[in-house]
Amino acid sequence: MGRIAVALIVSSWVIPISILVNRIVPEPYMDEIFHIPQAQQYCKGNFASWDPMITTPPGLYYLSLAHVASLFPGMFFIRGGSLLSELCSTPILRSVNGVLAILCSVIVYEIITLLRPNIDERKATIFAVVLALYPLHWFFTFLYYTDVASLTTVLAMYLACLKKKYHLSALLGAYAVFIRQTNIVWMLFVACTGVMDITLAHQRESLKVDNLNTTGNKIGHSVPSNRIIVGSNMRRRKPNSAVDNSKSFDDEYTHLFNKPFIRFS
């Protein structure tokens, strides 16, 4: 169990269902009629081309270019950019979200284990798999939309913040906004979380320093042990001397009154 188990379980339904969707719906579906042609323009190198019907930034299209190049690295270096225009088909572009969905489930597992460090590994795996089946996320896993890529980058940003890798978190947040501009809200949320963590960490450090200084001052102003012993001995001797004086007075008093009386005859 663990992140590998999560990836394998999610892959077990992402791959076959993706194949099934591509067989049943081979052509662009719903908003894919805008995203897929735009991505194919980027694959051809026409970065100045833009469909005015698209309201999101081009972050997903650049991810698609990297994905296609990683699938066929040898052919890409041999034939160059002309190969991308041939490989940017609808099934290949849809597979971007399939890969991101698997990565997203692993990120969810990591977040769960960080937020709940005492959780059992099996429970964390089950929670991550169940969250990967969230209906809206699950549906768009098999289509070429910005939802899965947006969610993956936002969660990766949050995970980096939890691991206190703030520079990486900032870069991921910037790219999340580059995929979908509304992610600026989540970027602010994660930024506030990071500020709170840093502030609490500084407070803990200052408390530790204050405690160390207080302990040092107490040690510096402490009385030597020999003085304490002498003082305690002196305090102990006072009641003993008083007892001795009272005993001597009683003896003299008894001796005085125990003398025989003089009788006058």
TrEMBL record:
The protein's annotated pathway: Protein modification; protein glycosylation
Catalytic activity: an alpha-D-Glc-(1->3)-alpha-D-Glc-(1->3)-alpha-D-Man-(1->2)-alpha-D-Man-(1->2)-alpha-D-Man-(1->3)-[alpha-D-Man-(1->2)-alpha-D-Man-(1->3)-[alpha-D-Man-(1->2)-alpha-D-Man-(1->6)]-alpha-D-Man-(1->6)]-beta-D-Man-(1->4)-beta-D-GlcNAc-(1->4)-alpha-D-GlcNAc-diphospho-di-trans,poly-cis-dolichol + a di-trans,poly-cis-dolichyl beta-D-glucosyl phosphate = a alpha-D-Glc-(1->2)-alpha-D-Glc-(1->3)-alpha-D-Glc-(1->3)-alpha-D-Man-(1->2)-alpha-D-Man-(1->2)-alpha-D-Man-(1->3)-[alpha-D-Man-(1->2)-alpha-D-Man-(1->3)-[alpha-D-Man-(1->2)-alpha-D-Man-(1->6)]-alpha-D-Man-(1->6)]-beta-D-Man-(1->4)-beta-D-GlcNAc-(1->4)-alpha-D-GlcNAc-diphospho-di-trans,poly-cis-dolichol + a di-trans,poly-cis-dolichyl phosphate + H(+)
Magnesium recorded as keyword: no
Subcellular location: Endoplasmic reticulum membrane
Signal peptide: 1-19
Sample GO molecular function, one term: dolichyl pyrophosphate Glc2Man9GlcNAc2 alpha-1,2-glucosyltransferase activity
InterPro entries to which the protein is assigned, alphabetical: Alg10 (IPR016900)
Family: Belongs to the ALG10 glucosyltransferase family.
Protein name: Dol-P-Glc:Glc(2)Man(9)GlcNAc(2)-PP-Dol alpha-1,2-glucosyltransferase
Protein's organism: Salix purpurea
Lineage, top ranks: Eukaryota, Viridiplantae, Streptophyta, Embryophyta, Tracheophyta
